[in-house]
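task queued by scheduler; priority normal; single chain, no ligands, no partner chains; default sampling; output format set to C-alpha cells
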Amino acid sequence: MFFRKKYSTVTLTLSEAKGRGLGDSSPVAQNDVIEIEGCLVESRIARLTTSLRAKRSNLIAGVIFLFLVIPLIAGCAPQKERLTIYHAGSLAVPFSELKAEFESIHPNVEVLCESGGSAKMINKAIVVVQAGEAPPDIIASADYKLIPDRLYEGGYADWYIAFARNSMVLCYRDNAAGSDEILNRTRTWYDVLRNDSVSYGHSSPDGDPCGYRTLMVIQLTQKYYYDEAAQLGLVPDGDADGLYDALIPGSDHERGRIGGINETRRPSGSVEVVKSKSVELIASLQSGD
C-alpha cells in the first residue's frame, strides 16, 4: 500500500520497458512509467495478498477443523457410569474403602459418595426426587427403620437389606474425669455425667440416629434405674432421678438440639455439646474441643 504514496521513487529504463512489452516507442514519460511500474507493483501485491488470504483461510479452516476434531476425539472416549450413594456419617470409613475396591474392579464406574446424618440424607433424597432430579442409587442408613418409615410411603423404595449392626457406646478421652471409676465400676456413667464438671456430646436428634438414640438411652436409664426400679426388683438410684431433665434440658422443641449449660441441675463447667453427626463428635473428642 505504501507504494502508491511513493510513485516518484519508482524508475524504469526504456530497455526494461521494452522487456515488459511496451514496444519501440519514444522514451516513456516518468508518470507513465510510474503508472506502469505501479501497476506491476499493485499486481504483485494483489498476488501476494491473494496468497496470504488463501493461507489464512487454510489456517482458519485448520483451526476450525482442529476445534471440531478435538471434541469428536474426546467424545469417542467411553463415558463412565455413575453410582451415587447417600450414607450415614458413621459409615464413611467402610464406604470409602468399598468405593476404592469397587472402582478398581469396575473401572468404567465412578462411585460418588455423600455422607451425613441418616435422617438428613433420606430427607435430601426425597427432596431431590420431588425436584425432578435423579435420585441416589443407594441409601445406607444407620437406622434401618427410617427406610420403611420414610421411603415406602410415596414409592421412593420398597425393600431394604440389613447388612450390619452397631451399638450405643460411651467414648471418652484418656484420663477423662471419672473414667477410671466407670471402668472399675465404682460409679455409673450417668453419675459422672450428672455430678462432675465434665462436658459431654451427642449428635442432633433431627438429622442423625445417634442423636435421638442418645435421648432414648438417657430416658430408658432414668426409667430402669429410678422410675420403675422397684417394680423390676432394683433399689432406685437417686442419681437417675430426673436424669433426662438434668442431662438434656430445655423445652420439648429445644431438647438435644441447642446444648449448653444446665446450671440448675448440673455442676458449673458442665456443657452439653451438640454436633450434626456422630463422626464429628469423634473428631472433637480427639482434638480435645
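post-processing summary
- The two ends are 79 Å apart (CA to CA).
- Residues 2-76 form one domain.
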